[in-house]
Amino acid sequence: MSTRESRTRDGLAALAGLAAGAVTVGVGSLVALFTGAASDPINAVGATFVDATPLWLKEFATSTFGTDDKLVLGLGEVLVLALLAAVAGVLAARRWAWGATLVVLLAAVSGIAAMSRPDTGTLAAVPSVAAGVAGLVSLRLLVDRLPRVAAKAARPTPAAPDPRPVDSARPIGAAAATTPAPRPAPGPDRRAFLQATAAAASLGVIAAFVGRAVGATGRAARSARAALRLPAPATTAAPVPTGVQVDTPGMEPWETPPDDFYRIDTALVVPQVDPSTWELRVHGLVEQEVTLTWDELLASELVEAWVTLCCVSNPVGGDLIGNQRWLGLPIREVLARAKPHADADMVLSKSSDGFTASTPIEALTDDRDALLAIGMDGEPLPIEHGFPVRMVVPGLYGYVSATKWVVDLEVTRFADKTSYWTDRGWSPHGPVKTQSRISVPRYDDSLKAGEIVVAGTSWAQHRGVTRVQVRVDSGPWVDVDLADDGGIDSWRQWSYRWQAEPGRHTLLVRAYDPDGVQSGKRVDVVPNGAEGYDQVQVTVA
Ligand SMILES: Nc1nc2c(c(=O)[nH]1)N[C@H]1C(S)=C(S)[C@@H](COP(=O)(O)O)O[C@H]1N2
Ligand SMILES: [Mo]
Predict the structure, then answer these.
(1) Residue 261 CA, ligand 2 centroid: distance in Å
(2) How far away, in angstroms, is 405 Cα from ligand 1 center?
(3) pLDDT per residue as tens digits for the range 249-308
(4) What is the CATH topology of the domain spanning 435-540?
(5) Rounded to the nearest 5 degrees, what angle is found at the Cα of 373, between the Cα atoms of 367 and 379?
(6) What confidence score (pLDDT) does residue 185 get?
(7) Ligand 1 atom closest to 311 (CA)
(8) In angstroms, rounded to a whole number, what is the distance separating the alpha carbons of residues 369 and 30?
(9) What kind of fold does domain 258-424 have according to CATH?
(10) Which ligand 1 atom lies nearest to the CA of residue 264?
(11) Prior bond to 441 cis, omega within 30?
(12) Protein residues whose CB sits closer than 6 Å to any atom of ligand 1
């Protein structure tokens, strides 16, 4: 074959590979309907990739794509898979064993990834095995239908008619080497091949979508959540003064609507925990192991509290932060029943999908509202925010405290155990740093000279914001008006009436807590949270 012919053949073989790849993925998702979404090959490989991602890449992903990082990961995975599928097609067309080996390798990688997820077992390999078999069969069927390819360009001896029928079963071989290949390219066998390929590809894609859509609706957690009526709190949250909100256009609500609440976790598939089988095991350095059931939790004296939760990955001025009213059982009550040993200094909490957080035991046993939360904004926790039970600990970043879908508390020591993020280079201790952000005006706004409202939010959870200052260009720091106080565990809004003069201006903000002014030194989020003053540049005309 000429290079041109073999290129055409490779192209068709790559198409066959892509179509077989779609069938593989589709069968994987359909079978995963029976073994759980975490065992879907795409999810299993993605989740393993997430866990193996080095810190710098993860930081790059969250800082570039924010909370869309999961979507980007999924797209990236599909692209890589498409490439590998095309390669498998080309290899299979040249030598079947090569292509088949690649398919088997991919299925094996995915099967091992699925079995090694913390929330799966051996059965989790079944979708990968089924997908691998479907991939092999469909690839073989399509490769066998690859049309013979003839050169369209070179026809040096038009005088010699070719006696072979167009769709002769005889491969172009020795004869073709002496008599130059003559045939019109898109013969019936090519059409049949393209039809079979398109059919396989469509079936695969449809199966993948159906598998994922059905998987998303038929989950136990969803119906359990819909049926749940939260018990009334034994202790209600202190009433929130109406003046917590700065009333100016563009200002974020003091109370973050649950739908807008940032979501950060390592879960590609939101864990589905059925409350009726939920249990919390408390063990480790304790006198008495304790198991708390869902019914016991519901029957407990629940406390309601406003707490601002934020992520250590929140950059200066960022929005990985939200304030909500949580309902839950103080964790100190559960720990008191277990009676931790005096030498324990940490509680390692674990989620149903294997995420862990290491929390200083003091933050869980002192009088703050560290909760095993079941409610958010008066409703059961949204599934992606930890349904049925999560932790919320005022004053600590989420990565060391806010375990969602929590099922296990191990009382231990920092010297003995590490957790998901501390294993990946983040600091073992994660107290929230005092921070501020300017919400209005926005960066690069064009404003009219005169009085302009500058407003924003500051936070110093569990210490409280005591004072906020704004500076324009290189002028003096001036105190701004603090909005009403919703409690030391919640963020605090503020505003400032600025007499703006024409020109380009830089606005800076800084907050105080009882220990003094926040740090103004620019520090990156790794390893224990960003530092620095938020700033906004505007043009006044
Ligand atoms: N199970 C589980 N819990 C988790 C995480 C996670 O990856 N898995 N991420 C933590 C981090 S880093 C943060 S900032 C908070 C975010 O909680 P949210 O998504 O409800 O805002 O959850 C924490 N709890
Ligand atoms: Mo976080």
Answers:
(1) 13
(2) 9
(3) 999 999 999 999 999 999 988 898 999 999 999 999 999 999 999 999 999 999 999 999
(4) Immunoglobulin-like (2.60.40)
(5) 130
(6) 54
(7) 14
(8) 44
(9) Sulfite Oxidase; Chain A, domain 2 (3.90.420)
(10) 19
(11) yes
(12) 261-267, 309, 311, 351, 355, 385, 398-399, 402-405
